[in-house]
Amino acid sequence: MSNLELICRLCDLLDRAQQIIRRQASLLAEHGIETSDGEIERQRGALLREIERNI
């Protein structure tokens, strides 16, 4: 497996994990528990920018 393939697989896992987190946050919000401050999205963006710089 090449480095690029590995990075693509890791990005896919990151996307799926973030989808799960968003669904869980949505369920919590339905019960009046607020969880979203945008931090997850900011960290994901920073990680993807770092990956792009190193490809």
Summarize the structure.
The chain is mostly helical.
Chart the SSEs and their pairings.
Layout: H1 3-30, H2 39-54
Helix pairs in contact: 1-2
Keywords:
55 residues, single chain, mainly alpha, 2 helices
- What is the arithmetic mean of pLDDT? 85
What is the radius of gyration?
14 Å
Q: Based on Cα principal axes, name the global outline.
A: elongated
- Report strand %: under 5%
The parts where pLDDT drops under 50 for at least 5 residues are none
Number of strands: 0
Q: How many H/I helices? A: 2
The tally of structural domains comes to 1
Largest sheet: none
> In terms of structural class, how would the helical and strand content be classed?
mainly alpha
Distance between the termini: 15 Å
Estimated helix fraction: over 70%
SSE arrangement, N to C: HH
Overview of this protein structure:
By secondary structure, this protein is mainly alpha-helical. The chain has one domain. It is built from two helices and no strands. Helix 1 runs antiparallel to helix 2 (39-54). The longest helix is centred in the first third of the chain and has 28 residues, at 3-30. It starts with a helix and ends with a helix.
